[in-house]
């Protein structure tokens, strides 16, 4: 009797364990790329460096240049597909902010309306990402896409300060490494470069003529992210 009970208990244990083993086999990534496929959402924090150029459109063009450093913060969501055992391809949408502000006060000329300051605002990004999974836990990647940034511009002639918000379009290139912490969580470190074309702003409505400017920016960012993959 004891022997039968022991055999019965053993059989129940095997049957109960079988689904767990099957489930583990089913959910384990078949290839390194599979470990980095699916939907993901992430939060981002990092360093934001802007190289600014304000070009005044006048008979004698006045060009001001300078740099600003700040903190960028935001998040993104996307989806990745496994193309081969090691290669992934996906898309990503991101929204970010920045504390960066360029102060041009030292270059102002009394009595001449000029750009006093430029504050970085919201940054929208949409692009593609190509990854290579070195192992089921580590992936390197490159990205490219479109960015639209909002800049708050301040102009002054020394006595009156005017504000105008402008949007500038550009492209973004980046690369980095993604490391899985658990099956669903990961951390990521990357470098991004963005270039924005001409963003025009005009104070002519409240100032004399020749108060029209073009703003050009190059952006360098080092970003750290933590995310979830589903």
How would you summarize this macromolecular structure in one to three sentences?
The protein is mainly beta. The protein has one helix at 2-27, and strands spanning 38-56, 62-82, 87-98, 101-103, 114-133, 138-156, 161-180, 185-202, 212-229. An eight-stranded antiparallel barrel has the order 1-2-3-5-6-7-8-9.
Describe what you observe in this structure.
It is a single chain. Strand 2 and strand 3 form a beta hairpin. With 230 residues, this protein is mainly β. The protein is 11% helix and 65% strand. It folds into two domains: 1-30; 32-229, Beta Barrel (Porin). The two termini are 49 Å apart. Mean pLDDT is 83; it is low at 1-26. The longest helix has 26 residues, at 2-27. The protein has one helix at residues 2-27; strands spanning 38-56, 62-82, 87-98, 101-103, 114-133, 138-156, 161-180, 185-202, 212-229. The chain has one helix and nine strands; from the N terminus they run αβββββββββ. It has an eight-stranded antiparallel barrel with strand order 1-2-3-5-6-7-8-9. The chain is elongated and about 70 Å long.
What proportion of the residues form beta strands (DSSP E)?
over 45%
Describe the strand arrangement of the main beta sheet, using strand numbers.
1-2-3-5-6-7-8-9
Architecture per CATH nomenclature, i.e. the level-2 architecture of the largest domain: Beta Barrel
| CATH domain class of the largest domain | Mainly Beta
Determine the number of helices (DSSP H or I, runs of at least 4 residues). 1
How do the helices and strands follow one another from N- to C-terminus?
Answer: HEEEEEEEEE
Portion in helices: 10-25%
Spans of at least 5 consecutive residues whose pLDDT stays below 50 are: 1-26
Largest sheet, in brief, is: 8 strands, antiparallel, barrel
Distance between the termini: 49 Å
Q: Which structural class is indicated by helix and strand composition?
A: mainly beta
